[in-house]
Amino acid sequence: MLYFLLIKLCVVDHMYQYSLESFNVYFFKAIERAEANEDDNARVLDLVQQIRINIYQWVARGLFERHKQIFLSLLTFRLMQKGQLEAEYNQAQMQFLVYCPLSTDSPCPASLKDWLPETAWYSIQSLIKLDGFERFSTDLEKEAPRRFQDWYNYLAPETEKLPLDWKRLEAFPFQKMLVTRCLRPDRVTVALSHFITKTLPHGKKFVECDATSSAEEVLFSSYADSTPATPIYFILSPGANPIKNVQALALKHGFDPAKQLAQVALGQGQDVVANQLLDMGHKEGQWIML
Fold first, then answer.
1. Phi then psi for 237, rounded to 5 degrees?
2. Domain count, the chain
3. CB 183, CB 152: distance < 8 Å
4. Looking at 51-114, which runs of residues are DSSP E strands?
5. Within a domain: residue 260?
């Protein structure tokens, strides 16, 4: 499941290409890292967890920040679909989360217009067509409009209980996320992270993967996954300069950056220089940064 999920990431960006060979490298590394256990069930569970986080971390380190949540969400939803998580998978609700259709049959009541956007009202008119949400529109308009307005105005409404009987959705975070999708679409990505943290085993590890680590710490960790034949590839954004981090890594492993780390800025005519450095590095065990 993990492999077929990550090879589809090329749909998000054509740069994301993964081979079965590279997948196997991390798959077997995860097996080595999993705790030994004589209990078969515990051993299998440990293997599943270790393989999942190992593969996710490897892939996430090569994704743009805006794409990491897409991959993690797909992983979580696929596990829901397979019945591997406690959260129940409902196709209609999933479609609603993704597309959030608008239903303009009923105009937004004048009493709500001072705080509720029309698009939110039209989203709710679609939401009430889903099982379990039939009374939501009525409760919002007639039963407790002020309490719903208070919820709407919270800085982080996804962490607050909904009014009336809808507070029961605290036990059903996916369904609560649908309400957030309608009323506060600006908070959906945060709500999604909360949902994954609660639903996925060790979800916090996935959501916060490398978030608290500096670029240097991530590089030091990534170095353990590289080999002389598997280089580290830096994808640079404007203003980024990993040279200092690479120099720190070289010092940590007993290399003198001035003598054993060669750098070449690639451009016209520099291919000859680069190839000469690679040949020299291959023979003498030096690091070459292109």
1. -105, 160
2. 3
3. yes
4. none
5. yes
Assigned domain for 30 exists: yes
Q: What would the pLDDT profile of 153-174 be if each residue is shown by its tens digit?
A: 999 999 999 999 999 999 999 9
Place of tokens 């710490």: 217
As a whole number of angstroms, the distance between CA 94 and CA 192 comes to 12
| Cα-based distances in Å from 29 to 16, 51, 52, 58, 181 | 21, 8, 12, 11, 39
H or E element that contains 223 = helix 215-223
User: Could you give phi then psi for residue 230, rounded to 5 degrees?
Assistant: -125, 90
Give yes or no: residues 186 and 223 share one domain. no
Whole-model pTM? 0.85
For residue 86, being part of any structural domain is answered with no
With H, G, I as helix, E, B as strand and everything else as coil, classify residue 211: coil
Q: Are residues 25 and 98 in the same domain?
A: no
**Percent of the chain clearing pLDDT 70 (strictly above):** 100
Considering the domain boundaries, does residue 204 fall inside one?
A: no
Summarised one tens digit per residue, pLDDT across range 185-207 is 999 999 999 999 999 999 999 99
Query: Which amino acid, 24?
Result: N
User: Residue 52 is part of which domain span?
Assistant: 2-63
If you count DSSP H runs as helices and E runs as strands, how many of each does the chain have, helices first? Answer: 15, 2
Residues 192 and 99 placed together within one structural domain of the fold: yes
